Amino acid sequence: MRIATWTLPALLVLPLMAAAPVSGGEASAGAPTSSTLGTDWIVSSGDNVCGVSDARQISNPAKVSYDSLLSDTAELKEMKKKGIDKDSPEGQILHNKGVDRVRKAAKSVMTDKSHCSVWKKITSRSGQSVPDITEAVRAQL
Known about the structure:
Elements: H1 7-19, E1 41-42, E2 48-51, E3 61-63, H2 66-71, H3 74-82, H4 89-112, E4 117-119, E5 123-124, H5 134-140
Parallel strand pairs: 3-4
Antiparallel strand pairs: 1-5, 2-4
């Protein structure tokens, strides 16, 4: 059997590519990460509600009491009233609709008040305060 000369370099590279380590490793897959290098803001990607999510791009953030807002949505009130388990198919659908409702309301207030992002939790290394827009978002729900 004769191998074409153009396949020889590919055959030499394939074993090297297969053995290359994956950056981050298995333990960090799916885990929330902090984007804090070279910035004043200390955030976790899982705490972003809407807007920019890279800490280096944050210029005028806001924060909300997310759990309080979520529990005030019609969807979560219905779950509580009917005793629907969050892990049931119906509960997951209602919970996701509630999350979407909070995100849309937060985005509307964020845009109106010229914020770049809304966070569940955000702190500043320099002690800069972050406005809480929870009540404005609640009014949009």
